[in-house]
Amino acid sequence: MNEELIARVKSAVEASEKWAENGWRVTFGPRGEEVSSLTAAEALPRPTSFRREAVNYWRQAQLTGHDAAVSGRKAIRALEAGDEPAALDALYFCRYIEAPFAEQARTWGPLYESMTAGAACC
């Protein structure tokens, strides 16, 4: 079962690293303009009133995704070493880091919940 869990965590790490690239539906500005990735935000014309807001949001998603992926890699190392409590702690931290984007990203929360429920674990 640990091999399956390791594969799931690796998949979450990859997804987390690409949050800003793959994106999700989010709107900005007074007219609710959709800007679904960092690339799209950076492509907005400079005079666009909400460009800075969109770029900042997606850069924050990028940084947050990277930080969660770092903790996800710690979980992988812990699982490979057979240290499931350390893996659970690392995944809890991933969920914590993901919190500002949890509703959209849905990467770490569901994985942590399935692990603590015993559905994917040990």
Write up what this structure looks like.
With 122 residues, this protein is mainly α. It has seven helices and two strands. It has helices at residues 2-17, 19-22, 38-43, 51-80, 84-98, 102-105, 108-116, and strands at 27-28, 33-34. Strands 1-2 form a two-stranded antiparallel sheet. α4 runs antiparallel to α5 (84-98). The radius of gyration is 16 Å and the shape is elongated. The termini are close together. The model has no long low-confidence stretch (mean pLDDT 94).
Helical fraction equals: 55-70%
Assign the structural class, choosing from mainly alpha, mainly beta, alpha/beta, alpha+beta, or little secondary structure: mainly alpha
How much of the sequence lies in strands comes to under 5%
- How many β strands by DSSP? 2
Give unreliable regions as ranges. Answer: none
Strand order of the largest sheet: 1-2
Rg over alpha carbons: 16 Å
- Major sheet details: 2 strands, antiparallel
Helix count, per DSSP?
7
- In round numbers, the mean pLDDT is 94
How widely separated are the two ends?
Answer: 6 Å
What is the 3D shape? Answer: elongated
Question: Nutshell version of this structure?
Answer:
This protein has 122 residues and is mostly helical. The chain has seven helices and two strands. Helix content is 69%, strand content 3%.
